[in-house]
Each structure stands twice: as C-alpha cells, then as structure tokens.
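Course exercise 7: structure representation. Students receive a sequence record and must write out the corresponding structure in token form. The form below is the worked example handed out in class, using Methyltransferase domain-containing protein (183 residues). Read each field label carefully; the graders check that inputs and outputs are placed in the correct fields and that the protein name is recorded exactly as given.

STUDENT ID: A-19
EXERCISE PROTEIN: Methyltransferase domain-containing protein
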Amino acid sequence: MALHLLPAGADILDFGAGTGIDAKAFAANGHRTFVYEPSEAMRDYLARHCHDEIVHESVVPVSSPLACEVQAVTADFAVLNHFADHTLLFEELSHVVHQGGFVLASMLNPYYLGDARYGWWRKNLINLVRHGHYAIPSESRIHRFVPRAVARAAAPYFRLERLTPRGFGLATNLYMFLLFRRF
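STUDENT ANSWER:
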C-alpha cells in the first residue's frame, strides 16, 4: 500500500523497522529508507538483513525518528499497539513528515472476532466501547484501539484518510491499516 502512495524517489521512515523486511523492499523500489528500531536484538538482524543497502546508504539507520524528514512513515506489524497513547508520537511525527505526506500504520484490530474465544477480549469489550481502547496485561504491553481513538491522537497534525478493511472486514481481519495524511 505504501509503495503505491509514494512519489518516485521519495524518502520514507520505517518506524519500528524490525528485521528490515519492509526497508529492503522500499530501497529496492528507489526510496531512501530511514529505519528506526528501538530493540537492540532487532537492530542486529536489520544490520545483517540490510547490510548491502546500509553500505550503499539506501537504508539509513537512525537513533531517533526525529533524525530525518520524509514524505512518509510506515509502522507495520502492529508497532503502534505498543504505545498506550499516540498523542506525543503524532506530534513528533508532524516534525518528520512533509506537508501532504502520510503515516501508514498496521494495527491489531480490536473488533477481530477471532479473538472472541479469549477471556481477555471478552473482559475488555466494555473498555473498548466506553474508552475506545484497552490494554492486554502481558510482558509485551499490547494495547488495542478503535480507529477514532488513534485519529483523535493524530489531530491536529494528521487526518485519518483511509481505514482498511471496512464494514464486515473489520470483524474478520486481525489487522487494520490506518492511513493518516499530514496537513
């Protein structure tokens, strides 16, 4: 989805880059890709997986997402589900993303009915309805959010432009994709 939205040669930040799977694909498509990964173990994998791209500077590791200015930010594999509150994050990203650029995030879907078999999902349904989010008590500190809660956190810097899937798809897909446009 991000590749179809990016202008030719536009720079991108892979936020929570993990092993660099996406970064390598962006670089292969002509996009200089800044990678931010807070986990030391994942940075080691990324350095090995994207070694050639790092040497040729088509993939550029950064110690802070604020260390670059880009047309787009991607946050795949539910990276944003590790945040309890996105307000400060979107404020910071507003200094990184050019006007008219975007943030594309894949997030765990709080409406996914496949999770209804778990007690934690049923226990948190009321929190989802009342507050628009809930946390799952675990070492990974995973949070689930309704799209409007993330959109509120993104304002006044970004507006939610697209939510995928929509309708019945929200009940049948583990992930949802939120596209925010910088204005």
